[in-house]
Design the sequence.
């Protein structure tokens, strides 16, 4: 993919200002430490800097989603597109991106174990112990046909009816006190 970024093109595609793209480029460069890409370790460090708990597991899930070419590193374009997708103004794009994040094994459905894995990673990131409880509630809410799998259609309906599902996947760092 490389590190070239078409600022105007991305701004138009994601309905954001060119200034926002330029700011994301700055953040990327700031976190690369002189490298041309973010390794998994650097990606974890970025997450661990901004969240109060251990964000490593959640960062790994995000890293796997951002690394679209599967080369084991996140280049500038992947980083920017990943952030823009996770905060997309287009709800359809955001839901599709979120479903693909929950579908860790890329099977086309979401299992109870995948929901638990994300919920526990989220809990560790915020130093809480409610991961399994949240996972059970989310799974009950999303798995409408009780087949122990969540299809894209079930996920889409649940995400449109409860915005907290998307907030769980795309957490915001705590506000400074």
Sequence:
């Amino acid at each position: 993919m490389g590190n070239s970024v078409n600022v105007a093109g991305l701004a138009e595609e994601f309905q954001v200002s060119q200034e926002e793209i330029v700011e994301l480029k700055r953040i990327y460069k700031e976190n690369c430490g002189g490298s041309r890409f973010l390794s998994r370790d650097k990606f974890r460090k970025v997450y661990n800097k901004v969240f109060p708990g251990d964000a490593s597991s959640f960062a790994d899930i995000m890293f796997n989603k951002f690394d679209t070419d599967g080369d084991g590193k996140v280049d500038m374009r992947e980083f920017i597109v990943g952030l823009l997708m996770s905060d997309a103004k287009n709800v359809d794009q955001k839901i599709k991106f979120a479903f693909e994040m929950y579908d860790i094994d890329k099977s086309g459905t979401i299992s109870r174990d995948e929901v638990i894995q994300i919920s526990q990673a989220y809990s560790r990131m915020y130093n809480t112990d409610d991961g399994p409880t949240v996972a059970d509630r989310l799974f009950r809410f999303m798995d409408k046909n009780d087949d122990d799998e969540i299809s894209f259609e079930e996920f889409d309906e649940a995400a449109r009816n409860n915005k907290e599902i998307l907030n769980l996947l795309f957490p915001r760092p705590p506000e400074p006190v």
